[in-house]
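pinging the channel bc i need a second pair of eyes. not urgent but kinda urgent?? the chain im working w is below, pasted from the shared doc
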Amino acid sequence: MTSPHPWSASQNKVRRSRLTPLTLTLSHPGEGTYVNLSAILVLTAEMELVHSCARFVLAFLRQRRYMLGTWAELSVIAVILAAGRGTRMGPLTANIPKPLLALRGRPIIEHILTGLRSAGIREVVVVTGYLAGQIERHLGSGEALGMKLSYRRQTRPEGTARALLLARDAIGDEPFLLLWGDIVVEPDQYSALLDNYRRAPCDALLAVNATDDPWQGAAVYIDDRWRVTSLVEKPPRGSSRTPWNNAGMFVFTPPVVEYAERLRPSARGEYELPQAVAAMVADGREVRAYPVRGFWSDLGRPEDLAAAERALAVAPSPSESVDSLSFPSRRGSR
């Protein structure tokens, strides 16, 4: 997945001496110079030390290029968490996993995948669990959708953070998109989220939606620059002083994996990804919010599914591509 990195390094002439100034200029073809790095290096007698230092600097920047490069340089993948039982759906999910429930004539997860495809995402890792085989058989390799799909199975319901860790081998050292598998938004919101990240890279970017009370999700507190200052998972009803709810769509950078690995179980006995985001905020990481435009629903209950059906009644018929769906504006139900 990782392609050769296009950064180059140039160095000033170095004489064989024990104390020699060395300037490294890091540049990208067609984009101009990004970083000038000057250092005083103590050289023994061999030029290999200079080469080693240059290699070290370039290797470091390969690890951090998601903070310096342009979005077009990155090979972006998406991770969809679709392992849950969907207990709030009651009998609707007794014999079928929630991501395969029909919405406007096609499975929920196909709406998500087609939206991702319209945003230029071609590689997706789907974390399955409950009735995993049905999802994997239905979607297959993804060829029918013009995508490359792979799967990771979460055999025990240990939470969203543990689900993310199952996909860490595919994530690599690039930013990636992560989605709850029951969230439906307007198709253009996937590209809008990615564009927002591209314009202002950060350690994590999470989508938020406005609600009357985010007690069923996670309350997200932000400042006047859309930086996240606090995140409270499942706050008591009526206790939140923010209308913003975690909308279940994220752009993450690889450090989130380390935070997910260090989590302890929540009060519900699960390892929850919002806990990792909260820890990133507490550590001073740059975490920003993006407000979702238009329609949003987590399709958690039968009435949510029915409401989405009604809201989409004016949309094109199921035979038409989801790429062209135009959703009416609606505040989230969470």
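so The first helix runs from residue 48 to 64. and Confidence is low (pLDDT under 50) at residues 1-47, 57-73, 315-334. — does that match what u expected or am i reading it wrong
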